[in-house]
């Protein structure tokens, strides 16, 4: 699984580096974006809370994708359920956020309120990384950045497939429904097949 942070790092290394991407970087780039199709198609859409998943968390043992069962203590359970309630996120995803936050900052001995803040912050950071990754891909195609024509062609083909497989409708849905204030930081107009999409990078997302 490619995380939003890994996806963004791979894209920036290949497309925004001081020198042309190496063959290995190009392979890594296409591998990363192909393995992120579902995340980009459902941009900023996350599984909601689910009673059966909540019950599983309350049993203090959770199995995340591609990992062995994870044992939780009472504090883990309380924080995961609080995250789920506050962010309207699936309970299993909230456990994943706790695991990722622990890998990032080592949560041992931290106050529960700080752990909650770090995990919630990671959630918002992942959302921003995903949007920035998509923005960078569009920018590579739309603007002349001196990239090799082959890699631009590969990225453009990927984006066209992505737009036609649901991303266009998802972007329209996000524009129509904005439950939070957006401060525009950057915007870019993308045209594919005579259709225009304006992508923005918000201050909060």
Your description of this structure?
The chain has one domain (1-166). The protein has helices spanning 4-15, 23-34, 37-41, 51-58, 74-87, 91-105, 112-142, 149-176, and strands at 61-63, 69-71, 184-192, 195-202. Helix 5 packs across helix 6 (91-105). The chain is built from eight helices and four strands; from the N terminus they run H-H-H-H-E-E-H-H-H-H-E-E. The strands form two sheets. The chain has a two-stranded antiparallel ribbon. The protein has 205 residues and is mainly α.
Beta-strand percentage range: 5-15%
- Low-confidence segments, given as residue ranges, are 180-188, 201-205
Question: So what's the overall shape?
Answer: elongated
Radius of gyration over all CA atoms, rounded:
19 Å
| String of helices and strands | HHHHEEHHHHEE
Compute the average pLDDT.
Answer: 84
How many individual β-strands? 4
Count of folded domains: 1
What can be said about the biggest beta sheet? Answer: 2 strands, antiparallel
Work out the helicity level. 55-70%
Q: Widest sheet: strand order?
A: 1-2
By DSSP (H or I, 4+ residues per run), the number of helices equals 8
Oligomer: single chain
Q: State the end-to-end CA separation.
A: 22 Å
Structural category is mainly alpha
Family: Belongs to the NUP186/NUP192/NUP205 family.
InterPro entries: Nup186/Nup192/Nup205
Subcellular location: Nucleus
Keywords: Nucleus, Transport
């Amino acid at each position: 699984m490619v995380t939003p942070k890994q996806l963004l790092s791979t894209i920036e290394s290949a497309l925004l580096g001081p020198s042309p991407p190496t063959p290995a970087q190009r392979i890594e780039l296409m591998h990363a974006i192909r393995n992120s199709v579902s995340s980009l198609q459902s941009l900023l859409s996350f599984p909601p809370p689910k009673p059966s998943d909540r019950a599983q968390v309350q049993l203090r043992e959770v199995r995340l994708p591609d990992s062995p069962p994870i044992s939780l203590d009472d504090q883990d359970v309380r924080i995961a359920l609080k995250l789920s309630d506050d962010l309207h996120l699936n309970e299993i995803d909230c456990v994943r956020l706790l695991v990722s936050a622990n890998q990032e900052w080592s949560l041992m001995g931290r106050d529960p309120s700080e752990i909650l803040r770090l995990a919630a912050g990671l959630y918002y950071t992942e959302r921003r990384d995903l949007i920035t990754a998509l923005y960078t891909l569009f920018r590579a195609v739309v603007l002349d950045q001196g990239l090799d024509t082959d890699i631009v062609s590969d990225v453009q083909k990927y984006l066209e497939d992505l737009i036609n497989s649901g991303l266009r409708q998802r972007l329209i849905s996000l524009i129509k429904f904005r439950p939070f204030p957006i401060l525009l930081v950057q915007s870019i107009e993308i045209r594919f097949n005579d259709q225009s999409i304006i992508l923005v990078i918000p201050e909060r997302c």
